[in-house]
Design brief:
Shape: globular
Largest sheet: 8 strands, mixed
Radius of gyration: 19 Å
Helix content: under 10%
Distance between the termini: 42 Å
Number of strands: 22
């Protein structure tokens, strides 16, 4: 059985406040809303099996992001979240509407995931979180991992996904290792996790994996975040749920949107977390991008930079961006959250400027 690597308070205490790397401070000229009255957040590209965004005619890329109408309280968006299809081109982002048709998803909301195109670009497989149950009158926070297949139609002026089919639950939750998401807290930041499936193909063995955010079973702490993993062995159709590979039990409740890139012979496991989801009794890190590195997928994980912190939001706007996602070319996307650092929450709901990383073993920095 895999013993998860531990992310602990000792690692957080190793963060040197004087040398924390910060993303550049944003101003209102740095981002543009995708569409009127639409806020977007967690985003991912339609990728190839190696993780790179697929390239369409004219160098365009197809992306997905969670989206919802704008509300006076930005947290309300989580109860209305749908996956939206976006086109990225040299002139900017273009909204293409909902990715999946109305009534197709088995949840009352659609939360984060990942998407992989076939080699011939004929189809796209979407891995996503179905939150709640379709038709429920009172929103619940049950989370299930699903996949679905769509045809990628490139015949028109803009690409579209059609003929959605093969909707399947990827795996059922294993209560020996992962806490149930049914009946738990409903407060943002305290919700238990079984979400955010991120696809990764391991070139070493050609097996496919999904990384996801989870909560440790039978924990005595309310702060029991883990990074879980699902495997599909080469030549097989079904997925197998495995024990967590990283645990932040007693330290942090949410290791969100975990994903792996393979670079220079090493595996880099990234996740996002926020200051307010660290246990109040222990040390707290800043809201930022965190990572571990290992020469092997199932053992040897150690926090990068001695602490796990890759970079944080700037002190002047500690919640300006969130949900960082690292691409194989080491560019990093995120969304603009509370971007001006003022007293009233100013939700950006748009793509933040991309950041670029430099990696050297267990040291990661921002490429200036």
């Amino acid at each position: 059985m895999t013993i998860p690597a531990r992310w602990t308070g000792e690692h957080i205490e190793a963060i040197d406040a004087a040398s924390i790397l910060s993303a550049p401070l944003l101003c209102d000229e740095d981002f543009t809303p995708i569409a009127p009255d639409l806020g977007v957040w967690d985003a991912w590209p339609v990728q190839d099996a190696a993780g790179a965004p697929i390239s369409l005619a004219g160098g365009r890329q197809l992306w997905m992001a969670l989206g919802a109408p704008r509300f006076a309280d930005p947290d309300e968006r989580h109860g209305h979240a749908r996956i939206h299809l976006l086109l990225r081109a040299a002139e900017g982002w273009r909204h293409l509407g909902h990715a999946m048709p109305d009534g197709f998803s088995p949840g009352s909301r659609e939360w984060s995931g990942s998407a992989v195109a076939s080699t011939d670009l004929a189809t796209v497989t979407l891995y996503f979180t179905a939150t709640g149950r379709r038709g429920e009158q009172i929103l619940t926070f049950e989370q299930r991992l699903f996949s679905a297949l769509a045809t990628l139609d490139l015949s028109g002026e803009a690409p579209r996904l059609c003929d959605w089919r093969e909707l399947e639950e990827i795996v059922a939750i294993d209560l020996d290792h992962y806490m149930s998401t049914c009946g738990g807290p409903s407060e943002v930041g305290k919700i238990k996790a079984f979400r955010d499936p991120a696809f990764f193909r391991d070139a070493a063995g050609d097996d496919d994996y999904l990384l996801f955010a989870g909560s440790q079973a039978r924990s005595r702490s309310e702060y029991n975040g883990v990074i879980g993993i699902v495997r599909r062995q080469r030549g097989e159709q079904g997925w197998t749920l495995l024990p967590p590979i990283v645990s932040a039990d007693t330290l942090n409740n949410e290791l969100e949107r975990p994903h792996i890139i393979f670079h220079a012979g090493l595996y880099y496991l990234f996740w996002s977390t926020q200051r307010h989801v660290f246990a109040p009794s222990g040390p707290s890190g800043p809201t930022g991008l965190y990572a571990m590195v290992s020469p092997s997928l199932f053992e040897g994980w150690r926090p990068v930079n001695g602490s796990g912190l890759v970079f944080a939001n700037p002190d002047a706007a500690p919640a300006q961006a969130y949900s960082w996602f690292v691409l194989p070319d080491l560019s990093v996307t995120s969304f603009v959250d509370d971007w001006d650092g003022g007293g009233d929450r100013n939700f950006g709901g748009a793509f933040a400027p991309f950041v670029h990383l430099r990696l050297a073993g267990d040291k990661i920095g921002i490429a200036r």
